[in-house]
Amino acid sequence: KPSYGPPKGIVNKFVSAGLPPWAAWCSKLNRHAMYRMSGVAERSFLPKPQHQMDAIWMNERVRMRVRTSPINRYVYRQNQYPYVKTGVHFSDTLDHWVQLPMVQSAMIEVEKDGGLDNFILKKSGRDLKSTYGERLRRHLLVRQKEIKKNFVLEKHSSALAQSIHSEIEKATGKRDVESIIAKYGISKSAFFSAVALELHRSKQGESQSVSYTHLRAHETPEHLVCRLLLEKKKKNTKNTFD
User: Fold this and answer.
1) Alpha-helical runs (H) found in the chain
2) Digit-coded pLDDT (tens) for 110-147
């Protein structure tokens, strides 16, 4: 009596491979058909919880691919990790280089946003999904507030120094200068020490070697007044020689 259907044991083989039993009766069974019949959908996950991620993954995930072997027609799963590399970017706000591990799509987004600072401040925490990225965002926000505060303080101190400078110009003697200093609450010893410091810097040429940001960050009204007086003295000396 002839037997019909697949040979004995083929059904169990297809079932053990994750396929339905009727797959044994299919005449043309390629890898794509096996993938569709297995009913296993693609799964993706992060290697760590979102609040513990170090690298910036954006929308990338570890993809669980379902692959098939054309030789023995076996369905197996394989994890595919995205390519994460450490990018070195310069932060204009922090004024130094920052190393940040990120995927290739994040690198492209950094270039589109015009720098690391814009990328970190523009993206939400849901997009970054990185503890290091959130820490860097906090550093950027704090530094921006400091820069804004220093800018306001510099404007006020420069206006105060201009008024003190205009009054000291009209002074005729040492007593007048001391009265003006006492009027604005500047100690006499601090003022004359600032004058000596500015004279020493102008002689040694330290004012050219120190950065502008560093000078403005530590500049006091006394230093501003002394700097204005020295600048005017240099201009007057240059005009007399010319």
Assistant:
1) 10-16, 31-38, 104-113, 116-122, 125-128, 131-169, 174-183, 188-204, 206-209, 212-217, 221-241
2) 999 989 999 999 988 778 878 888 889 999 999 999 98
Mean pLDDT by 10 residues, the chain (242 residues): 60 72 73 67 73 84 76 72 89 91 90 92 83 90 89 81 80 80 78 74 56 50 65 62 52
The answer to whether 131 and 100 are in contact (CB under 8 A) is: no
Q: Indicate the burial class of 184 (C-beta count within 10 angstroms; 0-12, 13-18, 19 or more).
A: middle
Strand partners, 75: 68
Q: How far apart are CA 138 and CA 148, in angstroms?
A: 16
pTM: 0.52
What are the beta bridge partners of residue 43? 64
Tokens of 83: 């390519």
DSSP of 177-215, one letter per residue? HHHHHHHTT--HHHHHHHHHHHHHHHHHTHHHHS-HHHH
